[in-house]
Protein backbone atom coordinates (compact mmCIF):
# COMPACT_ATOMS: atom_id res chain seq x y z
CA UNK A 1 0.00 0.00 0.00
CA UNK A 2 1.22 3.52 -0.69
CA UNK A 3 1.77 6.09 2.02
CA UNK A 4 -1.23 8.07 0.78
CA UNK A 5 -3.60 5.26 1.62
CA UNK A 6 -2.61 5.29 5.23
CA UNK A 7 -2.03 7.96 7.54
CA UNK A 8 0.45 7.60 13.24
CA UNK A 9 -2.21 8.90 15.56
CA UNK A 10 -5.76 8.11 16.51
CA UNK A 11 -8.62 5.98 15.38
CA UNK A 12 -11.07 7.53 12.95
CA UNK A 13 -11.62 11.12 14.04
CA UNK A 14 -15.34 11.80 14.21
CA UNK A 15 -16.68 14.59 12.08
CA UNK A 16 -18.39 17.03 14.44
CA UNK A 17 -22.15 16.98 14.35
CA UNK A 18 -23.94 19.44 12.12
CA UNK A 19 -25.04 22.72 13.70
CA UNK A 20 -27.97 22.41 16.08
CA UNK A 21 -30.02 24.98 14.17
CA UNK A 22 -33.23 23.38 12.98
CA UNK A 23 -34.08 23.98 9.36
CA UNK A 24 -36.45 22.35 6.95
CA UNK A 25 -34.41 23.54 4.00
CA UNK A 26 -30.60 23.63 3.74
CA UNK A 27 -29.10 27.08 4.08
CA UNK A 28 -27.90 28.62 0.84
CA UNK A 29 -24.28 29.71 1.08
CA UNK A 30 -21.63 30.82 -1.34
CA UNK A 31 -18.67 28.49 -1.75
CA UNK A 32 -16.68 30.90 0.41
CA UNK A 33 -19.36 30.83 3.08
CA UNK A 34 -19.36 27.05 2.90
CA UNK A 35 -15.60 26.91 3.49
CA UNK A 36 -15.96 29.15 6.54
CA UNK A 37 -18.94 27.23 7.92
CA UNK A 38 -17.11 23.93 7.40
CA UNK A 39 -14.05 25.14 9.32
CA UNK A 40 -16.28 26.38 12.14
CA UNK A 41 -18.08 23.01 12.26
CA UNK A 42 -14.71 21.29 12.61
CA UNK A 43 -13.75 23.43 15.59
CA UNK A 44 -11.06 25.45 13.83
CA UNK A 45 -10.36 28.65 15.79
CA UNK A 46 -7.13 29.96 14.24
CA UNK A 47 -5.80 30.15 10.67
CA UNK A 48 -2.66 31.64 9.13
CA UNK A 49 -2.67 33.16 5.67
CA UNK A 50 -2.01 35.86 3.10
CA UNK A 51 -4.75 37.03 0.70
CA UNK A 52 -4.65 37.50 -3.06
CA UNK A 53 -7.01 37.74 -6.00
CA UNK A 54 -8.00 34.09 -6.35
CA UNK A 55 -8.78 33.63 -2.65
CA UNK A 56 -10.35 37.07 -2.08
CA UNK A 57 -13.99 35.89 -1.96
CA UNK A 58 -13.15 33.57 0.92
CA UNK A 59 -11.27 36.34 2.73
CA UNK A 60 -14.36 38.55 2.51
CA UNK A 61 -16.27 35.84 4.39
CA UNK A 62 -13.42 35.09 6.80
CA UNK A 63 -13.14 38.70 7.92
CA UNK A 64 -16.76 38.59 9.11
CA UNK A 65 -16.18 35.52 11.29
CA UNK A 66 -16.31 35.92 15.05
CA UNK A 67 -15.21 32.34 15.75
CA UNK A 68 -12.01 32.10 13.72
CA UNK A 69 -8.96 34.27 14.26
CA UNK A 70 -6.93 35.05 11.14
CA UNK A 71 -3.21 35.76 11.48
CA UNK A 72 -1.94 37.79 8.52
CA UNK A 73 1.61 36.60 7.85
CA UNK A 74 4.41 38.30 5.93
CA UNK A 75 5.10 35.30 3.65
CA UNK A 76 3.10 32.18 2.83
CA UNK A 77 5.92 29.90 3.96
CA UNK A 78 5.50 31.50 7.37
CA UNK A 79 1.80 30.63 7.28
CA UNK A 80 2.62 27.00 6.56
CA UNK A 81 5.23 26.67 9.29
CA UNK A 82 3.01 28.53 11.77
CA UNK A 83 0.24 26.03 11.05
CA UNK A 84 2.79 23.25 11.61
CA UNK A 85 3.83 24.74 14.95
CA UNK A 86 0.18 25.09 15.93
CA UNK A 87 -0.46 21.43 15.10
CA UNK A 88 2.75 20.01 16.57
CA UNK A 89 2.31 21.80 19.91
CA UNK A 90 -1.28 20.58 20.36
CA UNK A 91 -1.96 17.57 18.16
CA UNK A 92 -4.78 19.53 16.51
CA UNK A 93 -5.15 20.43 12.84
CA UNK A 94 -3.17 23.43 11.60
CA UNK A 95 -4.70 25.54 8.81
CA UNK A 96 -2.95 27.81 6.32
CA UNK A 97 -4.38 29.83 3.42
CA UNK A 98 -2.88 31.27 0.24
CA UNK A 99 -3.92 32.60 -3.13
CA UNK A 100 -3.16 30.96 -6.47
CA UNK A 101 0.14 30.92 -8.35
CA UNK A 102 3.10 32.16 -6.30
CA UNK A 103 1.00 32.32 -3.15
CA UNK A 104 0.28 28.62 -3.42
CA UNK A 105 3.81 27.65 -4.44
CA UNK A 106 5.18 29.54 -1.44
CA UNK A 107 3.36 26.98 0.72
CA UNK A 108 5.09 24.03 -0.93
CA UNK A 109 8.10 23.90 1.40
CA UNK A 110 5.91 23.88 4.51
CA UNK A 111 3.62 21.24 2.99
CA UNK A 112 6.62 19.03 2.20
CA UNK A 113 7.92 19.59 5.71
CA UNK A 114 4.58 18.52 7.21
CA UNK A 115 4.53 15.44 4.98
CA UNK A 116 7.99 14.33 6.10
CA UNK A 117 7.20 14.84 9.79
CA UNK A 118 3.58 13.58 9.76
CA UNK A 119 1.99 16.88 10.82
CA UNK A 120 -1.80 17.28 10.41
CA UNK A 121 -2.10 20.29 8.10
CA UNK A 122 -4.88 21.71 5.92
CA UNK A 123 -3.74 24.04 3.15
CA UNK A 124 -6.54 25.98 1.42
CA UNK A 125 -5.58 27.73 -1.80
CA UNK A 126 -7.46 29.86 -4.28
CA UNK A 127 -7.48 28.96 -7.97
CA UNK A 128 -8.39 30.86 -11.14
CA UNK A 129 -11.90 30.62 -12.59
CA UNK A 130 -12.64 27.08 -13.73
CA UNK A 131 -13.36 28.39 -17.23
CA UNK A 132 -9.79 29.72 -17.42
CA UNK A 133 -8.00 26.65 -16.15
CA UNK A 134 -5.51 25.29 -18.64
CA UNK A 135 -5.19 28.62 -20.43
CA UNK A 136 -2.14 29.90 -18.54
CA UNK A 137 -4.31 32.53 -16.90
CA UNK A 138 -2.79 35.11 -14.57
CA UNK A 139 -1.37 33.35 -11.50
CA UNK A 140 -2.61 29.96 -12.68
CA UNK A 141 -0.58 27.06 -11.28
CA UNK A 142 -1.58 23.41 -10.96
CA UNK A 143 -0.95 23.37 -7.23
CA UNK A 144 -2.86 20.13 -6.65
CA UNK A 145 -0.58 18.45 -9.19
CA UNK A 146 2.55 20.06 -7.77
CA UNK A 147 1.76 18.91 -4.25
CA UNK A 148 0.52 15.43 -5.13
CA UNK A 149 3.80 13.72 -4.05
CA UNK A 150 3.94 15.67 -0.77
CA UNK A 151 0.36 15.46 0.48
CA UNK A 152 -1.78 12.62 1.76
CA UNK A 153 -4.37 13.87 -0.69
CA UNK A 154 -5.12 16.96 -2.75
CA UNK A 155 -8.56 18.17 -3.84
CA UNK A 156 -9.65 20.55 -6.61
CA UNK A 157 -13.12 21.98 -5.92
CA UNK A 158 -15.06 23.71 -8.70
CA UNK A 159 -18.65 23.53 -7.38
CA UNK A 160 -19.92 25.14 -4.15
CA UNK A 161 -22.13 22.13 -3.33
CA UNK A 162 -18.97 20.00 -3.04
CA UNK A 163 -17.28 22.21 -0.45
CA UNK A 164 -18.69 20.78 2.83
CA UNK A 165 -17.95 17.14 1.99
CA UNK A 166 -14.50 18.04 0.68
CA UNK A 167 -13.44 20.02 3.76
CA UNK A 168 -14.80 17.27 6.04
CA UNK A 169 -12.88 14.63 4.06
CA UNK A 170 -9.70 16.73 4.12
CA UNK A 171 -9.94 17.04 7.91
CA UNK A 172 -10.53 13.31 8.26
CA UNK A 173 -7.57 12.36 6.07
CA UNK A 174 -5.18 14.87 7.66
CA UNK A 175 -5.90 13.85 11.25
CA UNK A 176 -6.41 10.09 11.13
CA UNK A 177 -4.01 7.19 10.66
CA UNK A 178 -0.57 8.65 9.98
CA UNK A 179 -1.23 12.40 10.08
CA UNK A 180 -0.14 14.60 7.23
CA UNK A 181 -0.97 17.55 4.99
CA UNK A 182 -4.01 17.78 2.73
CA UNK A 183 -4.49 20.50 0.12
CA UNK A 184 -7.87 21.88 -0.97
CA UNK A 185 -7.67 24.08 -4.08
CA UNK A 186 -10.86 26.09 -4.69
CA UNK A 187 -11.62 27.94 -7.92
CA UNK A 188 -12.72 31.55 -7.70
CA UNK A 189 -16.11 30.88 -9.30
CA UNK A 190 -16.71 28.08 -6.79
CA UNK A 191 -16.11 30.60 -4.02
CA UNK A 192 -18.52 33.10 -5.58
CA UNK A 193 -21.37 30.80 -6.61
CA UNK A 194 -24.02 29.56 -4.19
CA UNK A 195 -25.49 26.20 -3.28
CA UNK A 196 -27.29 24.49 -0.37
CA UNK A 197 -24.93 23.80 2.53
CA UNK A 198 -25.24 20.12 3.41
CA UNK A 199 -22.86 18.87 6.10
CA UNK A 200 -22.03 15.16 5.77
CA UNK A 201 -23.22 13.06 8.75
CA UNK A 202 -20.03 10.99 8.47
CA UNK A 203 -16.97 10.65 6.28
CA UNK A 204 -16.73 7.37 4.40
CA UNK A 205 -13.88 7.26 1.91
CA UNK A 206 -13.54 4.08 -0.17
CA UNK A 207 -9.94 2.90 -0.16
CA UNK A 208 -8.96 4.86 2.94
CA UNK A 209 -9.09 2.56 5.96
CA UNK A 210 -6.13 3.14 8.31
CA UNK A 211 -5.38 0.03 10.33
CA UNK A 212 -5.58 0.95 14.01
CA UNK A 213 -5.92 -2.32 15.91
CA UNK A 214 -2.92 -4.64 15.59
CA UNK A 215 -3.18 -8.38 15.05
CA UNK A 216 -3.18 -10.11 18.44
CA UNK A 217 -0.88 -12.91 17.30
CA UNK A 218 1.85 -10.43 16.39
CA UNK A 219 1.53 -8.64 19.71
CA UNK A 220 1.85 -11.90 21.65
CA UNK A 221 4.95 -12.84 19.65
CA UNK A 222 6.54 -9.46 20.39
CA UNK A 223 5.76 -9.78 24.11
CA UNK A 224 7.37 -13.22 24.28
CA UNK A 225 10.49 -11.96 22.51
CA UNK A 226 10.66 -9.04 24.93
CA UNK A 227 10.39 -11.37 27.94
CA UNK A 228 13.20 -13.58 26.62
CA UNK A 229 15.55 -10.76 25.54
CA UNK A 230 18.74 -10.11 27.50
CA UNK A 231 19.60 -6.75 25.89
CA UNK A 232 16.36 -5.11 24.70
CA UNK A 233 16.03 -1.48 23.64
CA UNK A 234 12.86 0.56 23.10
CA UNK A 235 13.57 2.64 19.99
CA UNK A 236 10.99 5.45 20.08
CA UNK A 237 10.07 7.69 17.16
CA UNK A 238 7.81 10.66 16.58
CA UNK A 239 4.85 8.40 15.93
CA UNK A 240 4.47 7.93 19.68
CA UNK A 241 3.88 11.66 20.07
CA UNK A 242 1.50 11.81 17.11
CA UNK A 243 -0.44 8.91 18.65
CA UNK A 244 -0.57 10.61 22.08
CA UNK A 245 0.96 7.45 23.51
CA UNK A 246 3.52 8.84 25.97
CA UNK A 247 1.67 7.59 29.06
CA UNK A 248 1.42 4.10 27.58
CA UNK A 249 5.11 4.17 26.68
CA UNK A 250 6.08 5.12 30.23
CA UNK A 251 4.04 2.25 31.65
CA UNK A 252 5.57 -0.28 29.26
CA UNK A 253 9.14 0.92 29.79
CA UNK A 254 8.91 0.84 33.58
CA UNK A 255 7.27 -2.58 33.52
CA UNK A 256 9.95 -4.03 31.25
CA UNK A 257 12.84 -2.05 32.74
CA UNK A 258 14.39 -1.69 29.30
CA UNK A 259 16.42 1.32 28.13
CA UNK A 260 14.63 3.90 26.01
CA UNK A 261 16.14 5.94 23.19
CA UNK A 262 14.15 8.78 21.62
CA UNK A 263 14.81 10.06 18.11
CA UNK A 264 15.02 13.73 17.17
CA UNK A 265 11.28 13.76 16.44
CA UNK A 266 10.46 11.93 19.68
CA UNK A 267 12.19 14.20 22.20
CA UNK A 268 9.73 14.54 25.07
CA UNK A 269 7.85 11.34 24.28
CA UNK A 270 9.64 9.83 27.29
CA UNK A 271 10.84 11.98 30.23
CA UNK A 272 14.53 12.83 30.18
CA UNK A 273 14.56 12.62 33.97
CA UNK A 274 13.55 8.95 33.92
CA UNK A 275 16.46 6.63 34.74
CA UNK A 276 15.61 4.43 31.72
CA UNK A 277 16.20 7.24 29.21
CA UNK A 278 19.53 6.96 27.40
CA UNK A 279 18.94 9.99 25.19
CA UNK A 280 18.95 10.41 21.45
CA UNK A 281 20.38 7.82 19.04
CA UNK A 282 22.10 8.42 15.73
CA UNK A 283 24.81 10.67 14.38
CA UNK A 284 23.91 13.51 16.79
CA UNK A 285 23.00 11.25 19.70
CA UNK A 286 24.59 10.10 22.93
CA UNK A 287 27.22 7.37 23.07
CA UNK A 288 25.16 5.19 25.46
CA UNK A 289 22.11 5.39 23.17
CA UNK A 290 24.11 4.52 20.06
CA UNK A 291 26.01 1.64 21.66
CA UNK A 292 22.88 0.30 23.36
CA UNK A 293 21.28 -0.13 19.95
CA UNK A 294 24.43 -1.61 18.44
CA UNK A 295 24.77 -4.17 21.25
CA UNK A 296 21.08 -4.99 21.62
CA UNK A 297 19.57 -8.39 20.95
CA UNK A 298 16.04 -7.01 20.52
CA UNK A 299 14.93 -3.67 19.10
CA UNK A 300 11.33 -2.66 19.75
CA UNK A 301 10.71 0.15 17.25
CA UNK A 302 7.69 2.26 18.20
CA UNK A 303 6.63 4.84 15.64
CA UNK A 304 10.15 5.19 14.24
CA UNK A 305 11.12 4.86 10.60
CA UNK A 306 14.80 3.85 10.76
CA UNK A 307 15.93 7.17 9.34
CA UNK A 308 19.41 7.27 7.82
CA UNK A 309 20.53 9.82 10.45
CA UNK A 310 19.91 7.11 13.05
CA UNK A 311 20.94 3.95 11.24
CA UNK A 312 23.91 5.00 9.13
CA UNK A 313 24.54 1.93 6.99
CA UNK A 314 21.44 -0.23 7.55
CA UNK A 315 23.46 -3.43 7.15
CA UNK A 316 25.62 -2.44 10.14
CA UNK A 317 22.80 -1.11 12.33
CA UNK A 318 22.01 -3.24 15.41
CA UNK A 319 23.61 -6.24 13.68
CA UNK A 320 22.67 -8.85 16.30
CA UNK A 321 19.19 -7.61 17.12
CA UNK A 322 15.84 -9.02 16.19
CA UNK A 323 13.39 -6.27 15.27
CA UNK A 324 9.79 -5.68 16.27
CA UNK A 325 8.54 -2.78 14.17
CA UNK A 326 5.32 -1.02 15.23
CA UNK A 327 3.92 1.56 12.82
CA UNK A 328 0.51 2.64 11.60
CA UNK A 329 1.89 3.06 8.09
CA UNK A 330 2.59 -0.38 6.57
CA UNK A 331 4.79 1.26 3.94
CA UNK A 332 7.34 2.06 6.67
CA UNK A 333 7.63 -1.48 8.00
CA UNK A 334 10.65 -3.36 6.59
CA UNK A 335 11.36 -0.42 4.24
CA UNK A 336 14.86 0.04 5.68
CA UNK A 337 15.33 -2.85 8.10
CA UNK A 338 13.55 -6.18 7.76
CA UNK A 339 11.19 -6.67 10.71
CA UNK A 340 11.12 -10.06 12.43
CA UNK A 341 7.72 -9.16 13.87
CA UNK A 342 5.86 -6.48 11.89
CA UNK A 343 2.95 -4.84 13.71
CA UNK A 344 0.66 -2.46 11.85
CA UNK A 345 -1.47 -0.38 14.18
CA UNK A 346 -1.89 2.77 16.21
CA UNK A 347 1.01 3.17 18.64
CA UNK A 348 -1.24 4.02 21.58
CA UNK A 349 -3.31 0.85 21.21
CA UNK A 350 -0.38 -1.38 20.32
CA UNK A 351 1.73 -0.30 23.30
CA UNK A 352 -1.20 -0.85 25.66
CA UNK A 353 -1.77 -4.34 24.22
CA UNK A 354 1.95 -5.11 24.34
CA UNK A 355 2.08 -4.10 28.01
CA UNK A 356 -0.74 -6.49 28.87
CA UNK A 357 0.81 -9.31 26.84
CA UNK A 358 4.24 -8.75 28.44
CA UNK A 359 2.76 -9.11 31.93
CA UNK A 360 1.45 -12.52 30.94
CA UNK A 361 4.71 -13.51 29.24
CA UNK A 362 6.99 -12.69 32.19
CA UNK A 363 4.78 -14.77 34.47
CA UNK A 364 6.26 -17.84 32.78
CA UNK A 365 9.53 -16.32 31.51
CA UNK A 366 11.00 -14.02 34.19
CA UNK A 367 13.06 -11.17 32.73
CA UNK A 368 16.40 -10.15 34.28
CA UNK A 369 18.24 -7.18 32.76
CA UNK A 370 20.78 -6.70 35.56
CA UNK A 371 23.84 -7.48 33.44
CA UNK A 372 22.54 -5.29 30.61
CA UNK A 373 22.11 -2.31 32.91
CA UNK A 374 25.57 -2.79 34.39
CA UNK A 375 26.93 -2.34 30.88
CA UNK A 376 24.70 0.67 30.12
CA UNK A 377 25.48 2.41 33.40
CA UNK A 378 29.18 1.95 32.67
CA UNK A 379 28.67 3.63 29.30
CA UNK A 380 26.76 6.50 30.90
CA UNK A 381 29.54 7.07 33.42
CA UNK A 382 32.28 6.83 30.80
CA UNK A 383 30.60 8.94 28.09
CA UNK A 384 28.49 11.70 29.67
CA UNK A 385 26.90 14.26 27.38
CA UNK A 386 29.00 17.41 27.48
CA UNK A 387 30.80 20.12 25.53
CA UNK A 388 34.06 22.05 25.49
CA UNK A 389 34.20 25.63 26.70
CA UNK A 390 35.59 28.16 24.17
CA UNK A 391 39.20 29.13 24.79
CA UNK A 392 38.43 32.80 24.13
CA UNK A 393 36.26 33.03 27.24
CA UNK A 394 32.97 33.51 25.40
CA UNK A 395 29.90 31.54 26.39
CA UNK A 396 29.53 28.31 24.46
CA UNK A 397 26.28 28.00 22.47
CA UNK A 398 25.57 24.69 24.19
CA UNK A 399 25.75 26.42 27.58
CA UNK A 400 23.43 29.22 26.46
CA UNK A 401 20.84 26.75 25.15
CA UNK A 402 21.16 24.57 28.24
CA UNK A 403 20.58 27.58 30.52
CA UNK A 404 17.52 28.65 28.50
CA UNK A 405 16.05 25.22 29.19
CA UNK A 406 17.00 25.26 32.87
CA UNK A 407 15.58 28.73 33.48
CA UNK A 408 12.40 28.33 31.43
CA UNK A 409 11.60 24.76 32.45
CA UNK A 410 9.83 21.76 30.93
CA UNK A 411 6.39 23.35 30.60
CA UNK A 412 7.64 25.67 27.87
CA UNK A 413 7.68 25.00 24.13
CA UNK A 414 10.96 25.10 22.23
CA UNK A 415 11.02 25.48 18.44
CA UNK A 416 14.28 25.41 16.54
CA UNK A 417 15.63 26.08 13.12
CA UNK A 418 17.88 23.58 11.37
CA UNK A 419 21.59 23.10 11.92
CA UNK A 420 24.01 22.89 14.83
CA UNK A 421 21.73 24.88 17.15
CA UNK A 422 18.94 22.39 16.40
CA UNK A 423 21.01 19.46 17.61
CA UNK A 424 22.25 21.33 20.66
CA UNK A 425 18.66 22.25 21.57
CA UNK A 426 17.64 18.61 21.17
CA UNK A 427 20.58 17.42 23.29
CA UNK A 428 20.93 19.96 26.09
CA UNK A 429 17.36 20.99 26.91
CA UNK A 430 15.62 18.50 29.18
CA UNK A 431 12.23 17.47 27.80
CA UNK A 432 9.71 16.00 30.20
CA UNK A 433 6.54 16.02 28.12
CA UNK A 434 5.42 15.53 24.51
CA UNK A 435 4.70 18.46 22.17
CA UNK A 436 7.33 20.63 23.89
CA UNK A 437 9.98 20.23 21.16
CA UNK A 438 9.24 21.45 17.62
CA UNK A 439 11.68 21.09 14.76
CA UNK A 440 11.99 20.15 11.12
CA UNK A 441 13.33 16.60 11.22
CA UNK A 442 12.72 14.91 7.90
CA UNK A 443 13.01 17.85 5.50
CA UNK A 444 15.50 19.87 7.53
CA UNK A 445 13.87 23.17 6.58
CA UNK A 446 15.86 26.26 7.43
CA UNK A 447 13.52 29.06 8.51
CA UNK A 448 11.14 26.77 10.36
CA UNK A 449 11.86 28.06 13.87
CA UNK A 450 10.36 31.56 14.17
CA UNK A 451 7.02 30.92 12.39
CA UNK A 452 6.62 27.54 14.12
CA UNK A 453 7.12 29.25 17.49
CA UNK A 454 4.55 31.85 16.47
CA UNK A 455 2.03 29.15 15.63
CA UNK A 456 2.71 27.34 18.89
CA UNK A 457 2.17 30.53 20.89
CA UNK A 458 -1.18 31.11 19.17
CA UNK A 459 -2.19 27.56 20.09
CA UNK A 460 -0.77 27.65 23.64
CA UNK A 461 -0.88 31.30 24.75
CA UNK A 462 -0.27 30.47 28.43
CA UNK A 463 3.03 28.68 27.76
CA UNK A 464 6.40 30.34 27.28
CA UNK A 465 7.54 29.72 23.70
CA UNK A 466 11.16 29.96 22.57
CA UNK A 467 12.46 30.04 19.02
CA UNK A 468 16.07 28.89 19.11
CA UNK A 469 17.55 29.86 15.78
CA UNK A 470 20.82 30.19 13.95
CA UNK A 471 21.79 33.36 12.11
CA UNK A 472 21.33 31.58 8.78
CA UNK A 473 17.84 30.25 9.55
CA UNK A 474 16.72 33.48 11.20
CA UNK A 475 17.36 35.52 8.06
CA UNK A 476 14.98 33.32 6.07
CA UNK A 477 11.76 33.97 8.02
CA UNK A 478 12.52 36.72 10.53
CA UNK A 479 9.86 38.92 8.92
CA UNK A 480 7.31 36.94 10.94
CA UNK A 481 8.49 38.86 14.01
CA UNK A 482 6.46 41.72 12.53
CA UNK A 483 3.47 39.37 12.45
CA UNK A 484 4.07 38.55 16.11
CA UNK A 485 4.30 42.23 17.05
CA UNK A 486 1.17 43.30 15.16
CA UNK A 487 -0.89 40.39 16.48
CA UNK A 488 0.51 40.50 20.04
CA UNK A 489 2.07 37.04 19.91
CA UNK A 490 4.91 37.28 22.48
CA UNK A 491 7.48 34.66 21.57
CA UNK A 492 11.11 34.69 22.75
CA UNK A 493 13.97 34.31 20.26
CA UNK A 494 17.55 33.19 20.86
CA UNK A 495 19.90 33.57 17.89
CA UNK A 496 23.03 31.45 17.95
CA UNK A 497 25.16 33.64 15.71
CA UNK A 498 28.38 32.15 14.39
CA UNK A 499 28.36 34.28 11.22
CA UNK A 500 28.28 31.15 9.11
CA UNK A 501 26.21 28.14 8.13
CA UNK A 502 27.68 26.12 10.98
CA UNK A 503 26.46 22.67 10.03
CA UNK A 504 27.66 23.12 6.46
CA UNK A 505 31.05 24.28 7.70
CA UNK A 506 31.21 21.33 10.10
CA UNK A 507 30.56 18.88 7.26
CA UNK A 508 33.10 20.58 5.01
The total domain count is: 3
- Shape by Cα distribution: globular
Low-confidence stretches: 1-12
Q: CA-to-CA gap between the ends?
A: 39 Å
Helix content: 25-40%
At the first level of CATH, the class of the largest domain is: Alpha Beta
Looking across the biggest beta sheet, what order are the strands in? 3-2-4-5-7-6
Specify the biggest β-sheet.
6 strands, parallel
How many H/I helical runs? 21
Taking all Cα atoms into account, the compactness measure Rg is 24 Å
CATH fold-level topology of the largest domain? Rossmann fold
The average pLDDT score comes to 94
CATH architecture of the largest domain: 3-Layer(aba) Sandwich
Q: For the record, what is the CATH homologous superfamily label of the largest domain?
A: Thiamin diphosphate (ThDP)-binding fold, Pyr/PP domains
User: How many E strands?
Assistant: 18
Q: How much strand?
A: 15-25%
Amino acid sequence: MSRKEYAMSTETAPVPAAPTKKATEPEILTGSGAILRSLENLGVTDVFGLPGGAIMPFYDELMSSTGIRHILVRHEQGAGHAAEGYASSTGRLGVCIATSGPGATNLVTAIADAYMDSVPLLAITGQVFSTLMGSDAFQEVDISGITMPITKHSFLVTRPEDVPATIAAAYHIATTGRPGPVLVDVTKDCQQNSAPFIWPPKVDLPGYRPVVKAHGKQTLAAAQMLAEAKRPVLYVGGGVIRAKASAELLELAELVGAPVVTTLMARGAFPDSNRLNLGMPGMHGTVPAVLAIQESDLLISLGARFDDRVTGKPSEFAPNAKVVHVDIDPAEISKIRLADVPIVGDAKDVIADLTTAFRDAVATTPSDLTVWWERLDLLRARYPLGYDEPEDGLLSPQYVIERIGQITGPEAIYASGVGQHQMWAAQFIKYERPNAWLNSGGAGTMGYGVPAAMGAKVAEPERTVWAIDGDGCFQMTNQELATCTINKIPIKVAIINNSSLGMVRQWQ
